[in-house]
Amino acid sequence: MLGSRLRAIGGVPITYDRMGSRPRTVGQWTLEYDRLGSRLRSIGSVPIEYDRMGSRPRTLGQLGLEYDRLGSRLRRVGPHELTYDTLGSRVHTIGSIVVSYDHLGTRPSQLHLPEAQTSIPDELLLVVYLVLYLEAERRRQASA
């Protein structure tokens, strides 16, 4: 599985469980999952609430999540707007951060900050992690 998982966002490391399949921490924040281990319930002390069906996150702490009309693509997390590439299959920007992908175009490889910004604020870091996590889960479910 070398190179198949996100190892860091900027200088913030992401650690995984012993099997290497599920993220356990993002920097200082511990990731908590539901009892079955299938849904992310919180990032540190920031809870993630899901819709009635339990399939789509509705909130990340105090930040609301907005989806497109069909409810399939995330459009906004709080004040942070998301844009997608031309085909609409990959996230292109998360707020002011531009996401670049590997040569196969399937995995995020770099995040580009605006020139005046040298680090990612904590709130935006949580949003970036959640968006990339949801994208990875969507790809995993599509390939299963």
Describe this structure in words.
- This protein has one helix spanning 122-143, and strands spanning 8-9, 12-16, 23-26, 29-33, 40-43, 46-50, 57-60, 63-67, 74-77, 80-84, 91-94, 97-101, 108-112.
- With 144 residues, the chain is of the alpha+beta class.
- The chain has one domain (8-143).
- A hairpin with a 2-residue loop joins strand 9 and strand 10.
Order of strands, widest sheet:
1-2-3-4-5-6-7-8-9-10-11-12-13
Order of helices and strands: EEEEEEEEEEEEEH
| Chain-averaged pLDDT | 88
Tally the structural domains.
1
Backbone shape: globular
Which regions are unreliable across 5 or more consecutive residues at pLDDT < 50? none
| Rg over alpha carbons | 15 Å
Largest sheet: 13 strands, antiparallel
Helix content: 10-25%
Strand count: 13
Number of helices: 1
Which structural class is indicated by helix and strand composition?
A: alpha+beta
- Report how far the terminal alpha carbons are from each other: 17 Å
What fraction strand?
A: 35-45%
Which characteristics define this entry?
144 residues
